[in-house]
Amino acid sequence: MNEILVLYYSRHGATAEMARLIARGIGEIDGATAVLRRVPEVSTVCEATEETIPASGDPYVEPEDLQRCIGLALGSPTRFGNMAAPLKYFLDQTSGLWLSGALIGKPATVFTSTSSLHGGQESTLLSMMLPLLHHGMLICGVPYSETALMHTTTGGTPYGASHLAGTDSRLPLSDDEKTLCMAQGRRLAGIAMQLAGDGK
Known about the structure:
The chain is α/β, with parallel strands linked by helices. It has helices at 14-27, 63-68, 85-91, 95-100, 121-134, 148-151, 175-195; strands spanning 2-8, 32-38, 71-79, 82-83, 107-114, 138-139, 162-164. The chain has a single domain, classed as 3-Layer(aba) Sandwich (Rossmann fold), CATH 3.40.50.360.
């Protein structure tokens, strides 16, 4: 199966909603299947406190999900202009995949949600690209042929989809943000299918 992994961490739900829209965009490309996975919280104490299976929502990611996928969409809320600690913690544990070269040549894209418009959307997206580049992945942004990039007054960048959640993290995704999420999913899936030899 041509699985495209949509992997995310979400605290208040906006990044999870973006992940589902990106997955919908992936599903619009013939032959591509979106697989939604998330990372667990990082424990603040020495012993683990999270169950290995979440009580609700998307399953937690396993290294095999990354090995099996033909493309990756990676999402996180912004934390001081950087990806959130749980996502970074997971990525720090992927050295085995790096050693085997399992992700080399696979396309990847990134997305984020922030509480303020200038709260580090682009630097967060760039921070998520760095480990992917070390893995040898091919970074796919959002091209300006997506006209929503030109007139959005909320989120949306050429580095990847973004969302302005507001200071209380309750603003819904705007129409432009939704459009860009789905476009990003379609673009990732189209490129992944072409690289896998199944694209038209």
